[in-house]
Here is the input.
Amino acid sequence: MPHSTLDPSRLSRQGFPEVVFCESKTTAQIIDNLRGLAAANGRALGTRLQPDRADEVTAALPGSSYDPISRCVSLGDTPAPAENTPSVAIICAGTSDLPVAGEAAATLSFLGHPVRNFNDLGVAGIHRLHDRIDEIRQSSVVIVVAGMEGALPSVVGGLLACPVIAVPTSVGYGASFQGLAALLGMLNSCASGLTVTNIDNGFGAAIAAHRILHNR
Amino acid sequence: MPHSTLDPSRLSRQGFPEVVFCESKTTAQIIDNLRGLAAANGRALGTRLQPDRADEVTAALPGSSYDPISRCVSLGDTPAPAENTPSVAIICAGTSDLPVAGEAAATLSFLGHPVRNFNDLGVAGIHRLHDRIDEIRQSSVVIVVAGMEGALPSVVGGLLACPVIAVPTSVGYGASFQGLAALLGMLNSCASGLTVTNIDNGFGAAIAAHRILHNR
Amino acid sequence: MPHSTLDPSRLSRQGFPEVVFCESKTTAQIIDNLRGLAAANGRALGTRLQPDRADEVTAALPGSSYDPISRCVSLGDTPAPAENTPSVAIICAGTSDLPVAGEAAATLSFLGHPVRNFNDLGVAGIHRLHDRIDEIRQSSVVIVVAGMEGALPSVVGGLLACPVIAVPTSVGYGASFQGLAALLGMLNSCASGLTVTNIDNGFGAAIAAHRILHNR
Amino acid sequence: MPHSTLDPSRLSRQGFPEVVFCESKTTAQIIDNLRGLAAANGRALGTRLQPDRADEVTAALPGSSYDPISRCVSLGDTPAPAENTPSVAIICAGTSDLPVAGEAAATLSFLGHPVRNFNDLGVAGIHRLHDRIDEIRQSSVVIVVAGMEGALPSVVGGLLACPVIAVPTSVGYGASFQGLAALLGMLNSCASGLTVTNIDNGFGAAIAAHRILHNR
Amino acid sequence: MPHSTLDPSRLSRQGFPEVVFCESKTTAQIIDNLRGLAAANGRALGTRLQPDRADEVTAALPGSSYDPISRCVSLGDTPAPAENTPSVAIICAGTSDLPVAGEAAATLSFLGHPVRNFNDLGVAGIHRLHDRIDEIRQSSVVIVVAGMEGALPSVVGGLLACPVIAVPTSVGYGASFQGLAALLGMLNSCASGLTVTNIDNGFGAAIAAHRILHNR
Amino acid sequence: MPHSTLDPSRLSRQGFPEVVFCESKTTAQIIDNLRGLAAANGRALGTRLQPDRADEVTAALPGSSYDPISRCVSLGDTPAPAENTPSVAIICAGTSDLPVAGEAAATLSFLGHPVRNFNDLGVAGIHRLHDRIDEIRQSSVVIVVAGMEGALPSVVGGLLACPVIAVPTSVGYGASFQGLAALLGMLNSCASGLTVTNIDNGFGAAIAAHRILHNR
Amino acid sequence: MPHSTLDPSRLSRQGFPEVVFCESKTTAQIIDNLRGLAAANGRALGTRLQPDRADEVTAALPGSSYDPISRCVSLGDTPAPAENTPSVAIICAGTSDLPVAGEAAATLSFLGHPVRNFNDLGVAGIHRLHDRIDEIRQSSVVIVVAGMEGALPSVVGGLLACPVIAVPTSVGYGASFQGLAALLGMLNSCASGLTVTNIDNGFGAAIAAHRILHNR
Amino acid sequence: MPHSTLDPSRLSRQGFPEVVFCESKTTAQIIDNLRGLAAANGRALGTRLQPDRADEVTAALPGSSYDPISRCVSLGDTPAPAENTPSVAIICAGTSDLPVAGEAAATLSFLGHPVRNFNDLGVAGIHRLHDRIDEIRQSSVVIVVAGMEGALPSVVGGLLACPVIAVPTSVGYGASFQGLAALLGMLNSCASGLTVTNIDNGFGAAIAAHRILHNR
Here is the structure.
């Protein structure tokens, strides 16, 4: 793999294995990297693989599967988490945010964490959140995924004591400026102690949750 | 007044008299303009008069008064509104938003509309809003003033059917970029049918409310 | 509909039913949502449905129709408004702004409001506006749709006393920055009491007009 | 003058002499440069000299005078223009734009052009412009100075056939972003053939007018 | 033409006829508008017509022709300018700027002005400009078209006394931000009295030149 | 306190008491709020109190103290944490980042968490970080505070498995754009699972750490 | 070549021949320019030639070859550098940065400089850099290519004494804003004496290295 | 010095000693750091020390001196460079750029490099540059300092073969956006192989020149 320098010690240093970010790699590089990581770690995950390239990748890698919503490809089996493993709640403001939430869910599952999804709870119908807040409170970490004005993490953060990770998405148009509005909103939240990831970075939010859960 | 061209027909054309925006005028221009408008309309209002220039203005204009929170100067008396006049609710996300809310309130009062203030109802403690939403619903128009992430109008807009005017403020720091975060948040609200004014433009929100109430 | 959380109380809370924003949903989600809303409310509206997906949607939903200018799909019949119902004037600066104006018109019609259209009245030929201002004045609310420098709402707002809702469009090129120039222009209007929606948000302007007309 | 490299051939190359931009120079550099230019050209002009430094400059340069509105200092006498010299009209949207209009006027006068001022003709009261448009049409070049949304040049440009130079100003607040809104508005004008200068650049507009008048 | 409001008095008001901006219109609207303007004025011009739509337009309009470099379509014949008519020089910084320069040239020719082209004279090889500056000086107005850092107008403006109109182009990549770098560079030119148009606005520069030449 | 709506249930809802953000409040409001919170919770903390207002606040509130580096004021005593309480490491890229790091430290101490400070470990001298990384690894959560290019969290995040919270600061000049460069850098970190707060938001980082530690 | 003005003296003036930037030129212009330069200099190089146009170019120019990774086309043979010629190290943060690094390498090779490539050494696995730093130190100039947060040049610059040229790439998503984050990061580096090129400008970095090596 | 972590190996690692950036440090920190570095290296340099704090610093440090133009403080004596040491040319576009040029000169002198200054050679009077280009060509490295549109480096870079380092300054107003226009201009230069530093970063340019000269 002359185009890449594998990082085999990442698992021991950081507590999670390398994952392939597919977006700006060639298909050949993606296949090489997934195969190399699976050889080292027994299984591998790739994120942001566009649907029109997925068939070529899965055909080249027996045992791999691709999910078109989350745009993730995985290779090898992930053992089911033990019972009573603390879960991560992933809350979505709208249907259009599902791909980012799906990326977070796929990454957490790959790392062995149970995930609970709460979809389409945007603040314009705040009762939908109140109806489910007690369920949400059962999880140990909450990831909130929202585009447009990105207000949902502020309300959620004000109702919960646990770690809340806010993920802005590029859902919206006009003055959303591809997710900038949601990003700025989350960074300026009046709810204290939220932290924020890059726009559309469901993967990063999952790793942040893993850093919290893996180390306690 | 060679520096200004009075617009005496504004009251008949637009339904409200000219108001003096003091910020980038000289003190002499402010005094001239207020005196000229009071001569034409019986009374006059000035907005955004910084406290350090207020004494000079009020000294030159007998019968004028200045409020340091809203930074408004008024000249002449405003008659009390008739009973049962529809009111405007002004909701504030935080204590720091009070100057902008005050400017809206002063303008509405000058135009004869009753105002009801609801302070410090930011979304991080969403129960504070729920506790008062029935009171708020009594008003015919709602102005929501918020800085930081500007999420409050989205929640309010989702709970009410009346016109909701969102006013972003420059309250915040860092990535609030002097109110840009709140402005973008309000423009991208997931609550439908909100409209938005310029950052810190309490005056404009009041006139927008007046346009609604004056014409029905 | 596991991907969406319907909001059946929106009509009672906000005075208008949920509408499907089609842009970032899959075709299957759009069809599901329109069918679900029509089941609840008798009819349904979808906005921002790109022409290349319209056939699939209308084929799946008998009784639906699609308009390629406004990019709206509607399902079910809207009763004609009663005579003397107050109307909304929609003024367009240029021919290229028609899709956004059309979205506003389709939404208002869906909600039962008569609409009067005034096309191509940009300020570079200001006499075109003067020729029609008396007609415009017959409406109770005015929506002004403009791209490029977005100057038209300022002139209109200075001539009328009624509520004026300004909608910036992404029409333009270069330093229009996809509608940012028009948006900033409208937010900074020297005509007092204008309010502004997101870029290209004809739907939002219609709902704002509905909030005004529905509640008086 | 080791800190500066005089450009004595500018008058012959470009048709106008060097002028001192005072803003980011030390007071000693300003005095040196004005004295040097007056020695070469008989008279000299400095722009953007803040009031608190003016006394020191005029005290050091006998025969100089300072105008606090335009913030210009001039040294030496300018002969009156010949009768029938074509004039430049300078139109101002608001009282707060006077300093920039004044800088343009002072520069044009220094270069021998008659100037006619039209103040406070913003588009929110469009009749004020219509009342004076025939007067404005007498001039050979028109400079339009406006802050906030900067809409005035579009309307003026649509009414006149002569060259129209648009000067955005930093007047405004919030989303005016120190004149950016006016600048973008003017660059995107729907009136064809306007040209634009930097924000607050009254001097540049005057030189542009001079380039037009001087060469025909 | 219900989608457009013709402006037949533009020629008398502004000295040039309406021109069709094709970019965001449908092909049917373009054909309608060109035909309507040709009926009124004897000939018509359209700008920014993408090559893939040109055949349909020229097929529908006998006597029309299309130039793929300048992306202009013209309908009807333009009489040759009289001898000794003052010319406009159009200077291009690089080969990639030719489409914008071509749009300016096509517009000027349509309006009866002789044009002289000077291509690929960017400042990185400043001798190329010096070699031709005397030729350039023969023209009465100079249009300078440049992308990337947009430095050429500053150098040209420092060498000439005539009106200089600077047109930034979107040529470049990375931190050119689609022409923003060139636009800002031209607005901040150290050469006095340049004026600037929108990014890629060759048409606007031509009309500005026409305003200068037509009125002297 | 008519200007504020206290939130007494915050401690039970979110696990930490309300803290006074002093920056855009009047001195009277600050004193009122601190006194009110101390009455409710036994002690109180205020952040972002500028030094020139500190004396007035501490004089009005016996038992309060002010630290000019972190700009925090505290009222009432905080009990020392129990032995073996997990600590938070706060790493600073440069001396100029100390105020933000100090705000995080003061907030964590107020909430009962031991803090370990690591100052001036910027990546330009990467050995300084390597020398101390084993010490840093003893803490359960790491906060990394950096201005300029904000690269330090990426390196730290690549070396550690625990939660890493990145705080951009406004330290820098020119193209740092008041912390924007550091903020963007941290959001785009190639080290997975970092989360980010607003620029200069040491308080928010401390609350985020508290949310992690308090709930495990 | 009427569309271009060749610059045959560039080699003597600047020490390197003209190179064809292909991105916004027509295929015919590219072929013309490459052929013209090869006629003058014996060989020629073109950068940023998209793969879908490469076949047409190489077919038209016998002796030319195209590399799809670096997107460079070369015409004519480059002699191998003499032994002991100082080399340039090109360090890449990630696999996705290879096209930009390849453009730098192709340009340097064309100019006769030995190149040594170090791929995928991003700071999230800092040991990968430490493992190879002694090798890197053998080169006389170092080019560091990185997208996302662009932190690698800061670390490299802190470890080396030689000239370090930082090249931001557009690799990333969301708040990378097409390379803006990396660009700002590199401009604000805490490692002193780095210099920076435009985003994705591998060619420019190579010429900068050539300017250093060619002149000592 | 608990607030700072000295980096004593910087001289051996990078070839130049640590320098104190004074802007966001307290006066006590500045004095401590300068004293500490002088103890280690025999002499020390501080940059960006504002004039109003200089007296306190020089009073505390016998043998120190302060220059108010470059805002640099130095402690200890610098030996004169050997004869025939290659020099650095520093070219300034305007008088207002002198502070940044001075910072570069002071840093280079501190490091033992002869400096030659060329002031006020902006491109609006391009002959001033041509008059001195042969002198400039005698230096081995050229630093070009310019604000406003920042065009000077493009012209210089096109005339010279040696390394050219471009330094944008914050000189300008309006759309210069505190140096952004100059920065973008330099990054997009059509002259190949320029490299760029942060806005106003004369120090960084000097270190970059030192990296070139020190290592050949």
Observations:
- The mean pLDDT of chain G is 94.
- Chain G touches chain F through 33 residues (CB under 8 Å).
- Residues 10-76 of chain G form one domain.
